[in-house]
Amino acid sequence: MSSGQTPTVPVDVVLVDDHNMFRAGVRASLDARVHVVGEAENVDEAVDVIHALRPPVVLLDVHLPGGDGGGGTEVLRRCADLLAETKFLALSVSDAAEDVVGVIRVGARGYVTKAIDGTALSDAVLRVASGDAVFSPRLAGFVLDAFGTAAGDVATGDDELDRLSAREREVMRLIARGYSYREVASELFISIKTVETHVSAVLRKLQLSSRHELTRWAAARRLL
Amino acid sequence: MATADTAPARPGARVRLPLRRPEHGRRVAGVALGVAAHLDLPVRTVRLVFVLASLLGGVGVVYYVFLWLTVPAGDPADAARPAVLGRLARRQIDRGTPFRLAGPQVLAGVGLLVVAAVLLAMRAGGTRDLSWVLPLLLLVAGLVLAWSEMGFVQRGRTRGQPGGRVQGILRVVGGLLLAGVGVLLLVTEFTGEGIEPGVLWQATIAAVAVLAGVALVLAPWWLRLVRELGDERAARAREAERADIAAHLHDSVLQTLAIIRARSDEPTEVARMARAQERELREWLYADRPMPGTSVAAALRAVVAEVEDTRTTGEGEAVAIELVVVGDRPPDDGTEALLAATREALVNAVVHGRPPVSLYLEVGDDAVEVFVRDHGDGFRLDDIPTDRFGVRESILGRVRRRGGTATVTSRPERGTEWHLVVPVGPCPGAESPAGASTADEAPSPTTDGTAGGTAAKSATVTERSAGKGER
Predict the structure, then answer these.
(1) Do A178 and B326 touch (CB under 8 A)?
(2) What pTM, to 2 d.p., does this model score?
(3) What kind of fold does domain B301-463 have according to CATH?
(4) What is the count of structural domains for chain A?
(5) Are B437 and A170 in contact (CB < 8 Å)?
(6) What pLDDT does B334 receive?
(7) Across the interface, do A178 and B358 touch by the CB < 8 Å criterion?
(8) How far is A143 from chain B (nearest CA, A)?
(9) Quick one: A200 and A125 in the same domain?
């Protein structure tokens, strides 16, 4: 609803999680805008199912058995050829920075915790399907931690990968404070579309930046 | 006396502690302390025995040095505990720097004493032939050098010093050379002038060749021994970690699950216990668990835990607080006040607001900021007149006294948000530079909350620190 469009056709989703109970819970909680077309419970199965069905969105648990033990990150690596058409939304109970940032850096378009309710999860799926990024407050906190919060550390242009622009930082701080995209938009007097653009830009920077501080921050948390 | 607690004096179940040299409370190398713990004797008695035995032709000294070299350092009580009971993840406790013998100084002292003794002997009985003294000294020096490396390795393993390896190898090689030269000189001394240098060289080469052959034969055994030792150590560490996890699961998770099952008809209580358990498990799994008193973030987590455990909404429901922390620093007076104010704001949000409650902490270079947000109907001071003073004093006053600012923004459709800033760093008390992000911050000293009412307008209550504010 807050993504601004109401698709008449539900979005197809593949659900990857090793807990049967959790999959059933997610299936039941997703609303009519989302349709689960396939499920998988380990890495190899997930790669096969995703390649066979080529869904627009995959809900991917970060911790998965099977494969080479790489979990959700491994699924993303082995589906790298599909990233243009299939968007991945990571779903995890974990708070650890290595899980969150690790899965984003290999191509996931967003990260939500499993405590999320059905409507919010459906919103997140639609948002990812339309090409935008989904940031949880915690992920926004990690971003601010990695890119620094000092006021002088601001990107001069949008193309600068290693820094956040002042506006992007403001958006991140509001998300970290628990604001929804809609609330961020009205707080900053911008449109929701602009908020989504900022968040997508931050996601791109998080994925592509080789910033020294980011590297050091990641190394300190054993991400690299 | 200091070992009274390390040596358990339980009659009947007498458990003999393994022989180790404790690092705390030792006088020289911890040998007497270790022996006392092992034999369950007062350490004074053991020390006295060593001293008395030393008077009998130095037997005590020889035995002491022998034990020093053969008994590994460590805590006897720790060594006695099986790995299953050892908790890997316990917090670091600083027990002060353990006693260490200043090795070089002691060696220099002993060397000087020996030289003095030799000089005295030469002066007293000049006729005696003392040429064997120098080779013997060389031999002993070599031994000390090489053996000191063993102790060094033992310590270096726990400390993990880079570059210590090369130094250690140099020590061993130097010690071997010194000892070898000493032995050679001794041999020539005893055989007298009769032996030719050529024969000596041949003998030396033959001896080295035999040693090399033996080393070659024994090398596989030695390598296997080393590998097995490493494997065993790794297995022990794994087992300890597994035991730690099992102990934790048993201690808290299973127990909580049992209680939850028993009280499944009380949803609030169940939700609260599940949340507390989740929080504990998360901290256990993901947090860095810093030492107490070194981290504002950890202190804030404790505050959140306390509020989640003890407070409910007006309807009696438990509330989960979503916490996001950016940065960290050691606590000081300013952050203490900030945390106390944060606690009040959280309680306010949980009790009078509506979930979800969000808490955001940002540690900057010159200020620490906290945002507390709930999704209630807004901050109606008129509805809760008794809390008015409480909120004013406990939140605004606390932060203001530390030179910070506190702002509350309340809008009917977007809940209430507290913004607390306390300056930190080298110049506390300076005008707070943070707060640039609150565009709606208005310096209005009025405190009457005008948000009560149905009008969807925003009310801002701001308290600023003035240099001559109330104390």
Answers:
(1) no
(2) 0.60
(3) Heat Shock Protein 90 (3.30.565)
(4) 2
(5) yes
(6) 84
(7) yes
(8) 9
(9) no
- B280 lies within 8 A of chain A by CB: no
Chain B residues with CB under 8 Å of A178 CB are 322, 356, 358, 360, 373
Q: Where are the domains of chain B?
A: 301-463
Spell out the per-residue pLDDT of chain A, length 224, in tens. 444 455 567 889 999 988 888 888 888 888 888 888 988 888 888 889 988 888 999 999 888 888 787 788 888 888 888 888 888 999 888 777 777 788 888 888 888 888 788 888 898 899 888 888 888 888 888 888 877 765 555 555 555 666 788 888 889 999 998 888 888 998 899 998 899 889 988 888 888 776 555 656 655 655 54
C-beta pairs of B38-44 under 8 Å, 24+ apart in sequence? B38/B76, B40/B7, B40/B9, B40/B14, B40/B16, B42/B1, B42/B3, B43/B1, B43/B2, B43/B3, B44/B1
| B356 touches A: beta carbon within 8 Å | yes
Is residue A180 a part of any domain in this protein?
A: yes
Indicate if A154 and A192 belong to the same structural domain: yes
Which residue range is the domain that position A39 belongs to? Answer: 11-134
Is residue A210 in some structural domain? yes
Side chain identity at A85, as an amino acid letter? E
A33-37, A208-212, B282-286, B455-459: least confidently modelled range = B455-459
The per-residue b/e assignment along A7-39, b for 16 or more CB within 10 angstroms, e otherwise, is eeebbbbbbbbbeeeebeebeeebeebbebebb
Q: Which residues of A touch B437 (CB under 8 A)?
A: 170, 173
Alpha-carbon gap: B366 to the closest alpha carbon of chain A (Å) = 10
Beta strands across the sheet bearing B321-326: B321-326, B357-363, B367-374, B415-423, B405-411, B459-463
Q: Are B364 and A141 an interchain contact pair (Cβ–Cβ within 8 Å)? A: no
Q: Which of A134, A155, A176 lies at the terminal end of a domain, its last residue?
A: A134
Chain B residues with beta carbon closer than 8 angstroms to that of A150: 364-365
Q: Name the residue facing A149 among B286, B327, B358 (closest C-beta).
A: B327
Q: Which residues of A touch B373 (CB under 8 A)?
A: 177-179
- In this structure, the answer to whether residues A119 and A37 fall within a common structural domain is yes
Q: Are residues A113 and A54 in the same domain?
A: yes
CA angle B157, B159, B162 (to 5 degrees): 85
Nearest CA in chain A to B326: A145
Q: A60 and A80: one domain?
A: yes
Residues A146 and A111 in one domain: no
What is the rounded CA–CA span in Å between residue B281 and residue A93? 11
Per-residue pLDDT tens over the stretch B351-389 = 877 778 889 998 888 888 899 988 877 655 555 445 555
